[in-house]
Amino acid sequence: MMQAPPIGTLQAGPRGTIADVAGVTVGHCTLDEGAIQTGVTVVRPHRGDAYRDKVPAGGCVINGFGKSIGLVQVEELGVLETPIALTNTFGVGTVANAQIRAAIEANPQVGREEPSVNPLVFECNDGYLNDMQALAINEAHYMNALDACSDDFERGAVGAGRGMSCFELKGGIGSASRLFDIGEHAYTAGALVLANFGRLAQLTIAGEAVGRALQSARASQTQPERGSIIMLIATDAPLDARQLRRVAMRAAAGLARTGSVYGHGSGDIALAFSTAYTVPHDADFIAVPPLAGDARLDPLFQAAADSVEQAILDALFSAETVAGRDGHRRISLNEALRTRS
């Protein structure tokens, strides 16, 4: 199997995934049976209770054709209160219910003496391969993915990425990391994407117009863009929510370099969070470490853009060919490249 070429000049972390940011873990629950090709992926910002120890976060909507839950409160308050969940479009409500139940189990006064919890669920439409009308996702799938969270996780056609398509090839989960410095301090940025977007002719790999060559070897679909991509960026650099929104915006640079034009029907959403400190639920005052200066953030912006681009390529190169509903099939990039040669 061919590997994705390295992107940019920054060094990757030892795992080459978002888990290079200490404390961040990822888990999957994959449904793979005939017309059901879908799943849930969970990203935990730390191993504790996200409701009681929130982390700062900021989001950016590049193109808003999406059905996510929780973004409004993240924009207002600038923190995460649950792990981040990824699934298919019709599974969003079910997964949000599972997040709420998990928060209530850990904190029985949620929604009573204590404030409600803000579930955070992102989605992409996997309906080409997966029968979304079957409503196959249930709350146990979220809990299974949560329980599976680890710093060693699979990428490609797994979890929420099982039924996803990318550039008319098999897409899914991809991840990457980059090391960078701010002054004399060394930090890590890591990205995880749910890649489900693009037309084959647009596919660009490390600056090379690979998609055009592949398109000449196989028929391209002509349906309008109905994909999406969710881009998550974690860092251990000390930032506030405003700065993290600026980091999230740089995901668009990495996305564009793969050939995306943020199509009309594509929900392109990025979220960045920092693990440098937590915001205690009950605190009267918050102890925040010295924050990075805005004028010193360029290395992080580069790390964010490069890790997102690398993560998209990782999703493409990691995925295997998948057959799903009504005989639909998405071949992997590796299979397409072998066929071309």
UniProtKB/TrEMBL annotation:
- Which CDD domains is this protein grouped with? DmpA (cd02253)
Q: Which GO terms describe its molecular function?
A: aminopeptidase activity
Signal sequence, renumbered to the chain: none
**Superkingdom field:** Bacteria
Q: Which residues form a coiled coil?
A: none
Tell me which UniProt keywords the record has, alphabetically: Aminopeptidase, Hydrolase, Protease
Q: Which InterPro entries match?
A: ArgJ-like_dom_sf (IPR016117), Peptidase_S58_DmpA (IPR005321)
What the entry lists under PANTHER family is as follows: BLR5678 PROTEIN, D-AMINOPEPTIDASE
Family affiliation: Belongs to the peptidase S58 family.
This one is known as Aminopeptidase
